[in-house]
Amino acid sequence: MRFLHTMLRVGNLERSIEFYTTALKMRLLRQSENTEYRYTLAFLGYDDEATGTVLELTYNWDTNEYDMGSAFGHLAIGCDDIYATCDALKAAGATICREPGPVKGGTTVIAFVEDPDGYKIELIENKFAGKGLGDN
């Protein structure tokens, strides 16, 4: 088994695709519409679905916003230079809601960016990915 995708419901599909492809440099892998049930799916990622985990954006045609709920936390994306990545995101108009720096209680360098629907995306420097708090 392997992890295939994570799904987020979005209020404006075009705005979300623009954010993930322009600001976060993902590729739009495929998109499909279901006219009978009035929704559109868009799959985005850094690798093809056959080899990597991707993000599914679901746009229900009659819904333009959602309650965030309290159970969902965030998505996480690795990057080589978190400071340069945050500068590029800011230049693209993205909101950095936690500036880069060490995680509380550790040395792993993280930051958070917010997508157009308010979902939080944690950025982690690749050299720390998979190392917990970075103290190992």
Question: What composes the largest sheet?
Answer: 4 strands, mixed
Largest sheet: spatial strand order: 1-4-3-2
**Overall strand count:** 8
First and last CA, distance: 28 Å
Helix content: 10-25%
Q: Strand portion, in percent? A: 35-45%
Task: Provide a count of the helices.
Answer: 2
Question: Your description of this structure?
Answer:
The longest helix is centred in the N-terminal third of the chain and has 11 residues, at 13-23. This protein is an alpha/beta fold. It has helices at 13-23, 82-91, and strands spanning 5-9, 27-34, 39-45, 54-60, 75-79, 95-102, 109-114, 120-125. It has a 4-stranded mixed sheet, covered by helices on one side. The protein has a 4-stranded mixed sheet with strand order 5-8-7-6, covered by helices on one side. 15% of the residues lie in helices and 38% in strands. It is globular. The model has no long low-confidence stretch (mean pLDDT 93).
The gist of it:
The protein is α/β, with parallel strands linked by helices and 136 residues long. It is built from two helices and eight strands, in the order βαββββαβββ.
